[in-house]
Design a protein that fits this description.
The chain is α/β, with parallel strands linked by helices and 221 residues long. It is built from 6 helices and 7 strands; from the N terminus they run H-H-E-H-E-H-E-E-H-E-H-E-E. The chain has a 7-stranded mixed β-sheet with strand order 3-2-1-4-5-7-6. Strand 4, helix 5 (130-139) and strand 5 form a beta-alpha-beta unit. Helix 1 crosses helix 4.
């Protein structure tokens, strides 16, 4: 990933409006019934799991991180965009929660703690070497912990809107899917040609996604 270009892109996007992600009023709801299946399953798992530590990689404006903090988790949240981190801090304050925020490239993040839940939602398609990052994530996951992953797939072309930076989608049964084959699967979907509705854009466009929630049930990684 080109750190400078990606940082500039997201700083510009986050500066373009007060709220870039999660336009719906359900953004901080911890009720699974108020969310679509992927986030509903994450919330069900988070509520049934003993509260511990969570990591949100590519936190954006912090909706996932804030919900976990509201549920009682200690949350570390990382983003390459300083504007994203500033907005996440402000939004977290409105919800009365505190997050441990890190403005840095994920390639330089130390992964020196163990986490019960690691979220990588909408970030992995900006990483060329997915295996290296996934290995770090899995090693940093506690035994019985969960990884929550969402990224663009190759099932449909990347829209022009997103091609101003380098994007590396994965095939539906590609390296990301295979990397979790020996974990217990709690959610697996391949969404195709889904209209973009999570952030404001000038031009309507479509995406295809890989969405996985998997549990680590051994600790020999």
């Amino acid at each position: 990933m080109n750190k400078i270009e990606l940082t500039a892109f997201f700083n510009s996007e986050y500066n373009s409006c007060r709220r870039y992600w999660w336009q719906g009023e359900n953004r901080y709801s911890c009720d699974p019934q108020k969310h679509l299946p992927f986030h509903a399953k994450l919330l069900e798992i988070a509520q049934s799991f003993p509260r511990g530590r969570s990591l949100d990689i590519g936190t954006g404006e912090g909706a996932d991180a804030i919900r976990l903090a509201l549920l009682g988790y200690e949350v570390d949240a990382v983003d390459i965009s300083a504007i994203a981190i500033e907005k996440t801090a402000a939004f977290a304050k409105t919800q009365g929660v505190k997050l441990n925020l890190f403005n840095q490239d994920i390639n330089s993040f130390p992964f020196d703690k163990k986490y019960d839940i690691i979220i990588c939602n909408g970030m992995l398609h900006y990483v060329r070497d997915k295996i290296q990052l996934l290995k770090k994530i899995q090693v940093a996951t506690t035994c019985q912990g969960y990884n929550v992953v969402s990224l663009f797939s190759t099932a449909s072309p990347i829209p022009d809107y997103h091609q101003c930076v380098e994007v590396y989608p994965d095939s539906e049964n590609g390296v990301v899917f295979r990397h979790f084959q020996d974990w217990k699967s709690f959610h697996k979907t391949f969404e195709r040609n889904k209209i973009e509705s999570s952030h404001p854009t000038i031009t309507p466009h479509y995406h295809s996604y890989i969405k996985l929630i998997s549990q680590k049930f051994h600790d020999h990684i």
